[in-house]
Structures are given as structure tokens and as C-alpha cells.
Amino acid sequence: MVFWAFLIIPALSQPHGTATVVRVIDGDTLKVEFQGQKESIRLIGIDTPESRANPKAKRDAQRSGEDIKRIIAMGGKATAFTKSKIKKGGYGQGRI
Predict the structure, then answer these.
(1) DSSP, residue by residue, 30-75
(2) Are 74 and 27 in contact (CB under 8 A)?
(3) What tens digit of pLDDT does each residue of 59-87 get?
(4) Which end of the chain has fewer CB atoms at under 10 Å, N or C?
(5) Spatial contact of 23 and 30, defined as CB atoms under 8 Å apart
(6) pTM of the entire predicted model
């Protein structure tokens, strides 16, 4: 039984391809292209302020007592930071 685990576990941990970052939506969400399809990816364990006025930004402002403009400004900084971590490749696309 243990022998089979040595065969199966390495196969499960191998990468299954490369996704290309095509857009940073905000500080914790990316749009990637993987195997010809575009997908939105949320970064686990990261929750940045919203970068646009939307219902979640309004809820965050009410919950925190912060001005919504300040929250959106912080979200803009988080988005710029995430963009700065993307390594640009051809066609303006990137990878992390």
C-alpha cells in the first residue's frame, strides 16, 4: 500500500500547465488564460480593499467607518502593487 503512495503522490504534485495573466482585476483577483480559456482567479488568503465603488466597497465602508473614497484609494494601491509583481512577457501578458 505504501509503495503505491510513492507512485501516486508525485504525479498529483506535478504542474498541469502554465496560466498566463492577461489582466489584474484588483489587488486579489486576476484574469488568466489557461488552455485557451480565460478564468478569474482569487488569491487565497488575500483580501484587498475594493478598487471601485460597488456594493462590497459600500459595505466595507459602513463596517469599518472609513470613507468609501479612502477605501477605493487603498484598493487602487493594492491593484498597482499586484500589477507591479507581474512579469511581462510577449503581447503585454505576464506571469507571477
Answers:
(1) EEEEETTEEEEEEPTT--PPPSS-SHHHHHHHHHH---HHHHHHHH
(2) no
(3) 999 999 999 999 999 999 999 998 888 87
(4) N
(5) yes
(6) 0.69
